[in-house]
Design brief:
The chain is α/β, with parallel strands linked by helices. The protein has helices at about 50-60, 75-85, 95-100, 160-170, 180-185, 190-200, 220-225, and strands spanning about 5-10, 10-20, 25-35, 40-45, 65-70, 90, 105, 120-125, 135-140, 145, 205-210, 215. It has a seven-stranded mixed β-sheet, covered by helices on one side. Strands 8-9-10-11-12 form a five-stranded mixed β-sheet, with helices on one face. The radius of gyration is 17 Å and the shape is globular.
Length: about 230
Amino acid sequence: MSPMQSFGQDIWIMNGDHVRMFGMLPFTTRMTVVRLKSGGVWLHSPVRPTPEGRRAIDQLGPVQYLVAPNKIHSLGIEPWKSLYPSAEVWASPGFSRRHPDIAVDAVLTNEAQAPWSGDIDHGVIDGHAVLDEVEFLHKPSNTLIVTDLIQKHEAAGESWIWRGVKRMAGILGEDGGVPLDIKLSVRDKTAIRRSIDRILGWDFDNLIIAHGHCLQGGAKEAVNRAFEGLTGQ
């Protein structure tokens, strides 16, 4: 069975290792895979490669782009780059400050003209003291791709301690949303509101997130609800 799950037209998800944030908090990991109209493959937040995963992706086409959507999600960038040396690494604005040892080909600012723009739009989340993240819209499948800004961690398999922690943080289960620490760390409410309004202006009905439940259908309403209270507006 393929390790990839189809999520729509030319878009797939692939789950990766379980990791521990700060060495403690358990997190699942997930990569988004897009086959571009050019025939190349775009990997968002790459998980660590496995032989099965590589074979599945090779069937789609050549890997052209590796995307680090925020400064934390570096896990699979170098391993995939070693497998596909010609792939370009595109990273969030703060990625290289945290990972100066990882070579980056281009930075994902709002002004950046990404070579995949015919298939995928992008927008930077501005106005936050800590969060360094770029969101994406896969236009053919009407799918919003989010990394850490929205989280809906699975409750199954979690210890009661971590279920409690994640529930208090507002990120447990299908009712999860923007983590409490992100809500409390907004630096500029006007700037982050502008970023959110840009995302909500995109045409999407589906949602892929890196941590937890994804949505096929009804995503615009769910994302709008998750953003309520983030800026106090």
